[in-house]
Write a structure and sequence with these properties.
seven-stranded antiparallel beta sheet
Length: 561
């Protein structure tokens, strides 16, 4: 069931018309076409906020057409070299002069030209093959190589769909590298369960050409799998490299992490002895088993903070995954749908919303399971006004429930937004939503903080609580005296949550502290306000937000923007 939020159509240049337009612009404007091409690329990306319509993998293979530029340069250089050699042959005096000056190098001119032409033809062939015949592309082959039975791999459309779906649901982007729960998309594709080592390469080289000094910076991620195969991805900055290493360490914690060309890297890549390879794999499996056990215990610990309502109406706080799994299997035994409910002790935050309960109607293997997650009303014990629902398969249901027991909210991309209507729910219409819920959302537990202080240039990243409290106590009745504590989604900076404070300058609330909560997405924004008489009240709310203790938003009033 597709959410109406994602069904809105946007205009942008699709393949292959975008390439045609780029070529026409280059022919007409030459080098001046670059700004126009960059503007079109920016517009196309903006109109596809949930990722490219054709998928990340197919977009990556089509991007290999950029290799035609290098192919053209090699072909042009090789052609010029051969033309120069042939032209000189018609002038005997110049031939003798060149033979004296270049000696043996003179006869290498046609050889080098022919080699450049062959390289250009090869680059052009590879670029066109990757872009126009994706089933034979290097990217598709790298996915096949990750499967247990490469010869029995499904068609390329299904191969790419496996990676695309994982990245859309759980992907984190570090530059051009996308890291999901099962796959890593870089210059090649890596299967996370097969990763045995991840190594960072950061090198800075300088070279002089006459009076000019050129600096070359290398930032690469080297991934080594269980076959000792390496997948290398080049990134643009040190920040992208650090973010990629940090994310990979969370997604593949049992792998070996280190620096390229270190002893750990060489031991993992160059070991040929069977006994040593067996010892490395055994050590990996031991690390993985320990971490899986820790994750299981943590999940059970978190689950004990929830209350499960069983189909017969009884409740229990002793929740294990086996209990949930048996509920999902029960319809296959009884032939009837099985209702259940999970209520956490503390509302769960995620995807820009706060949720107070999950209701499920298990359908078994034959029928889908319906999941409804109710948004927190802002007041304990008061039912929420909005919810999100979706019908899903047994496998998807298990993944959502496991995440809920860990305190994680799945991507709401394909969920339907619902509004309470008496004792039932109805779909929220686009014109009713205004882009966000009428209840202020909670700050995101994983997004970084950024502080902006009125009258001071720039902003402060990752401020300490002492800095925030000091600014709050120093606010006064001046036009430029205010504080904004903000979070931005690292994957989509247009989505942000913030809490801000200023002293009212006039009116009946003059001298009071205006505390406002705001949430903005590409689809809209909302703002809520509460006037507080004392700075200590404002400090308490900022502290609850900063430390993610859960804001009491029941007294905030929505404002028109």
């Amino acid at each position: 069931m597709e959410s109406q939020e994602t069904s809105k159509k946007h205009f942008y240049l699709k393949w292959p018309w975008n390439v045609v337009v780029y070529i026409v612009l280059v022919v007409l404007l030459r080098i001046f076409a670059i700004p126009a091409i960059l503007a079109i690329i920016w517009w196309n990306k903006k109109q596809q906020p949930d990722g490219p319509e054709e998928g990340y993998c197919l977009q990556r293979t089509r991007g290999r057409l950029i290799g035609l530029i290098w192919a053209a340069l090699f072909l042009a250089g090789g052609g010029l070299a051969i033309w120069f050699f042939v032209a000189v042959q018609t002038m005997p005096y110049e031939v003798e002069k060149l033979k004296e000056e270049l000696h043996f190098g003179y006869y290498l001119i046609p050889v080098g030209g022919a080699a450049a032409i062959l390289i250009g033809i090869y680059l052009a062939y590879r670029s066109l093959q990757d872009a126009l015949v994706p089933e034979k592309s290097a990217l598709a082959q790298s996915i096949r190589n990750q499967l247990d039975y490469p010869d029995e791999a499904p068609p390329v459309k299904e191969l790419f769909a496996m990676v695309d779906q994982d990245l859309k649901q759980d992907g984190q982007w570090c530059g051009k590298m996308g890291i999901g729960k099962e796959w890593v998309l870089g210059d090649e594709v890596s299967s996370i369960p097969r990763i045995r080592g991840v190594f960072s390469r950061e090198e800075h080289r300088t070279r002089r050409a006459g009076k000019r000094t050129q600096a070359v910076h290398i930032y690469e991620v080297w991934i080594v799998d269980d076959r000792q195969q390496r997948q290398v991805t080049s990134l643009k900055s040190k920040q992208e490299l650090e973010e990629a290493m940090d994310c990979l360490q969370r997604r593949a914690p049992a792998a070996v992490f280190g620096v390229y060309d270190s002893k750990a890297y060489k031991d993992l890549v160059y070991t040929k002895d069977d006994m040593q390879q067996y010892a490395q794999e055994h050590a990996y499996q031991q690390r993985k088993a320990r971490q899986d056990e820790q994750a299981r215990r943590e999940q059970e610990r978190l689950a004990q903070n929830q209350v499960l309502t069983l189909p017969d109406g009884s409740v229990t706080s002793r929740i294990t995954w086996d209990t949930i799994h048996q509920l999902l299997l029960q319809p296959a035994q009884t032939g009837k749908a099985v209702p259940f409910q999970l209520v956490p002790g503390v509302p769960i935050q995620g995807q820009g919303h706060t949720f107070s309960r999950l209701v499920g109607l298990a359908g078994g293997v034959a029928k889908p399971t319906r999941i409804l997650m109710e948004e927190y009303s802002g007041t304990p014990g008061v039912p929420g006004q909005y919810a999100w629902t979706r019908d899903m398969s047994t496998g998807e249901t298990e993944e959502v429930l496991r995440g809920w027991l860990r305190g994680e909210i799945p991507s709401l991309r394909d969920w339907t937004h619902m509004e309470r209507a008496g004792r039932t729910w109805q779909r929220v219409l686009e014109q009713q939503k205004g882009g966000t819920s009428s209840i202020p959302p909670q700050p995101h537990p994983d997004w970084p903080w950024c502080m902006t202080v009125g009258g001071e240039p720039g902003s402060i990243s990752d401020p300490s609580w002492r800095q925030v409290e000091t600014v709050l106590r120093g606010l006064n009745q001046e036009a430029d005296s205010y504080l904004i504590l903000e979070q931005k989604d690292p994957q989509n900076p247009a989505t942000c949550w913030f809490i801000q404070c200023a002293v009212a300058l006039q009116g009946p609330d003059q001298g009071s502290y205006s505390v406002e909560i705001g949430f903005a997405t590409p689809g809209g924004s909302s703002l809520w306000e509460w006037m507080m008489p004392d700075v200590q009240d404002a400090i308490r709310y900022f502290s609850d937000a900063y430390y993610h203790r859960g804001l009491d938003v029941s007294r905030f009033q929505k404002m028109g923007i």
